[in-house]
Amino acid sequence: MCDRALTAFAFALALVARAEKPQAAEFFESRIRPVLAANCYGCHNADKATSGLALDSKRGLDKGGKRGALFVAGDPGASLIVRAVERSGDLKMPPGGALPESAVRDLREWVNQGAVYPAAASATNSVID
Ligand code: HEC
């Protein structure tokens, strides 16, 4: 009985975990990418990676910049990208002025949720000619 309940619970958790992915992708596309595009891509993109940082690709986000990784596993609040937009240390991004509070909250939430970057469903990713 107890085992069956556990199995059902595990199954429900697995379903939740599967359902979360599209939600995370949707959150990124609607709340994160537009903020990065409007406020960050101008200086941090694949062609002009200021301070070694490109924010317009998964690879760029994974790599980080001259200072190293953007994300601190297990401590999202210590992540460089969050600290930069919260302007809590020496690094204050974007340099021209703070993001709206809601955008800062969204970025922090995105990092708290594991900074999911949706896989690009692009035909150019295909290995079939
Ligand atoms: C006008 C250009 C400009 C814009 C726009 C800009 N940045 Fe920057 N960014 C810089 C410069 C210049 C540095 C290097 C600053 C330094 O080393 O003191 C930097 C550095 C950084 C770093 C540290 C990289 C490293 O490892 O050295 C992060 C993180 C960062 N920016 C995040 C952002 C985010 C997030 C945004 C958008 C919200 C943004 N930046 C918008 C110019 C910009």
Question: Any idea how many domains?
Answer: 1
Say what oligomer this is.
single chain
The set of bound ligands, ions and cofactors reads:
heme C
Rg calculated over all Cα atoms:
18 Å
In round numbers, the mean pLDDT is 88
Low-confidence stretches: none
The helix count comes to 4
Cα end-to-end separation: 53 Å
Helix content: 40-55%
Count all strands and give the number.
0
What is the general shape? elongated
Provide the structure class: mainly alpha
Main sheet record = none
Strand composition percent: under 5%
Q: Write down the secondary-structure element order.
A: HHHH
Please summarize what this structure is.
This protein has helices at 2-39, 58-63, 80-86, 101-112. The protein is mainly α and 129 residues long. It has one domain.
